[in-house]
Amino acid sequence: MKICVLPGDGIGPEITAEAVRVLKALDLKFEMEEALLGGCAVDAAGDPYPEATQKLALAADAVLLGAVGGPQWDSNPRELRPERGLLGIRKQLGLFANLRPAILYPELANASTLKPEVVAGLDILIVRELTGDIYFGQPRGIEMRDVDGKHQRFGFNTMHYTESEIRRIVRVAFDAATKRNKRVCSVDKMNVLECTQLWRDVATEVAEEYPDVELSHMLVDNAAMQLVKNPKQFDVMVTGNMFGDILSDEASMLTGSIGMLPSASLDENNKGLYEPSHGSAPDIAGKGVANPLATILSAAMMLRYTFNQEAAAQRIEGAVKKVLAQGLRTGDIYEPGTQKVGTKQMGDAVLAAL
Ligand code: IPM
Ligand code: MG
Fold first, then answer.
1. Is 245 considered catalytic here?
2. Radius of gyration over alpha carbons of the chain, in Å?
3. Closest by alpha carbon to 59, among 11, 10, 18, 4?
């Protein structure tokens, strides 16, 4: 069981260290090796996804990632931006299925900006296609063109999906729904975009393979509205790369605690990259105050999806619930009456609870 660990930038190294400690505490035999991805890789190797990292990631069964990015790289040319490393590893490893759960922990019921009755018990799974769509479509660029009688800059991207790309991600959503509340909502913009008309057509075809699961369709603008109006109507949502990027951020904030949410990005064979849903939080990097729980919960997802170790996954999730019940909180989820702890103390508590 080989794990490639990519701490990344910002708070990445701090939170990843805690997840690694948790994995090492299990009586499972992992081989772990660290490598560079993102801004740190640009600085050290002039490439956000250097060859040495590619080698390790390709050879590993799973990748544990902290986070990438930071203001110091924001004005770099596109190929030297940390995000390019993330997109590169997703594409190279064929990680087309991005699972982003949004769960409201009862202990953190007050963290949401929405009314408690709207979000209490919330448990949504967003399934986002991750290797296609306008993110990767060609042609793309910014160039000088003669348009509307003017020689001017012209920016363009291309949205496209093949039916097989749609079918395989929609199946992931249906398979997940089978183990949950048996409802899939497919999100598109078929009233405007042909590409997403195809999405709707294929989703409807796939639904015939799953008579026990109910499929509904929703336009993305309405889905954005429904997510804040009545989020509990959803079980599994499935959508393309671009809409999924936006809706998953929205869904994560329903819980008020993005520091708690893990994610998995899987290939056809359940090899996966696991990372917290939040970013590199440069403002608190190096201070020892970041919340390591989303990364620790990402390690639990790794055990579940890549290594088929359901019991170990539940052990970690149970330990996290226990430390929350004990009242331990990092700054992002702190409220009066609870005990504020740092990154390492939180990791210590999870280890103790394990
Ligand atoms: C995400 C992020 C990435 C994305 C960025 C950092 C490239 O927003 O994982 O949601 O857009 O996919
Ligand atoms: Mg995003």
1. yes
2. 20
3. 4
The DSSP code sequence of 265-286 is EE-TTS-EEEEESS---GGGTT
Residue where the block lists tokens 């590993």: 60
Alpha-carbon span 10 to 68, nearest angstrom: 7
Q: How long a stretch of residues is the chain? A: 354
Sign, CA torsion 229/231/232/236: positive
Alpha helix (H) residue ranges in the chain: 12-25, 39-45, 51-59, 82-92, 116-119, 163-178, 194-207, 220-229, 241-254, 293-305, 310-325, 343-353
SS3 state at 119: helix
How do strand 2-8 and strand 62-67 relate by DSSP bridges? parallel
Q: Could you say which ligand is closest to the alpha carbon of residue 242?
A: 1
Residues whose CB is less than 8 angstroms from the CB of residue 97 and which lie 6 or more positions away in sequence, other chains included: 127, 129, 130, 168, 169, 172, 264, 265, 266, 267
Whose CA is closest to atom 2 on ligand 1? 245
CA distance to 158, 188, 220, per residue, from 247 (Å) = 20, 12, 8
In the chain (354 residues long), the average pLDDT of successive 10-residue segments reads 97 98 94 98 98 98 98 95 96 98 90 91 96 97 97 98 98 97 98 98 98 98 98 98 96 88 96 95 97 98 96 97 96 94 98 97
Ligand closest to 277 (CA) is 1
Chain centroid, CA 35 distance in Å = 20
SS3 content of the chain, % helix, strand, coil (to 5): 45, 20, 35
pTM for this predicted structure: 0.94
What the chain holds in terms of domains, given with CATH numbers, is: 1-96+267-354 (3.40.718.10), 102-256 (3.40.718.10)
Does the bond joining 139 to the residue before it have cis omega, within 30 degrees of 0? yes
| Residues with C-beta atoms within 5 A of ion ligand 2 | 245
- The 3-state DSSP class for residue 76 equals coil
The pocket around ligand 1, CB under 6 angstroms, is made up of: 83, 86-87, 245
